[in-house]
């Protein structure tokens, strides 16, 4: 049996993305790699989309006597010098083992664990850049809330990342407003990781269970039909399982993945339903816009609750209709990535807040996003368009009245005031 003591190599982590959530997750994993240094290398690379940034006068880092403050600087240099992402996660100290890197190929080159965490509109191009540059036996976790709609249909980012890069990729999603997690306020999250059976070697000590509370390497083997060419069978055809992890590395099973993300303030529940976890995070962003609109109209909590109820129903229906073989209703109704994320997103999320302001001020959500978010990106508006274009190809717009209503309102064909009539049974 493999023993951690005999694992000559450690896993190196790279976070691909450094926005509000990307930087928060880099902080979380950087704390954990230090505490689990028998498994993980101490340095966490964080790929940063480079830009020049002027430290604002109100920042505690502003020093009128220093050139660093009086003219724009490279964001990576500011992060590495100040140990703070002054633009996307201001006033949160980052552990010193987070290293910002503007060169994506260099950032990923030694990583056996890749955490994808950037606005969903950018991931396709990033993966194209990364092709052939990642370690073939690397494993991925997608923290991206969105879906990839193309001529192929509606794909989960875990699947599209996995197939583009030839690696296995799971998903992390939950009721996780980034600034609250960064401030170490307690929250829960869900990680769906259904790795190839070959990853489920036993960690030491002997007898330690090798998988999640809900699974075992044995039932993983039953769940996963191994096909030739490095593919696992899934509801949507095939997804990459990557290449076997060399024996010198500690196994990347549920136990070790949980060690990378779980904190006293960030409680992780491991599951196998990658589709449900990914869809909960993506589709609630559409619903949060509707919730923001009805709240902005001053319609009160009952109206917002009605929108959230419908949102959960449409999430479940979407999963069951289009990802029927793998998606579990319980993922939406019991896990943080489902109902809890719906509630938090419809209370304090950016999509909710910007939609609410747009109604109150009579401005477009895009204008409000530009004005309020300092470069952060809403995911709900583009997801509403992408999901609608997919539903149209399926002839199923009417089956998802809330998602369709949000699209119609964004398109200017209806007004937020029309929502009750548009969703009436
Ligand atoms: N912020 C949150 O509270 C939160 C919480 C949970 C999940 N999420 C999800 O995490 C994902 C990442 O969100 P975020 O909050 O970290 O991002 P963000 O909204 O802060 O977006 C800004 C990021 O986009 C990058 N960017 C801008 N232009 C780019 C380009 N052309 N190419 C590549 N990158 C570019 C910026 O450098 C910056 O890192 C999203 O899918 C989001 O839904 C966010
Ligand atoms: O700020 P939002 O609307 O992108 O939502 C943030 C998180 O997804 C909440 O879990």
TrEMBL record:
Keywords in alphabetical order: Oxidoreductase
Top class in the EC scheme = oxidoreductase
Q: Source organism's superkingdom?
A: Eukaryota
List the EC numbers from the record: 1.1.1.8
Q: What's the protein called, per UniProt?
A: Glycerol-3-phosphate dehydrogenase
Organism of derivation:
Vermiconidia calcicola
- What lineage is on file? Eukaryota, Fungi, Dikarya, Ascomycota, Pezizomycotina
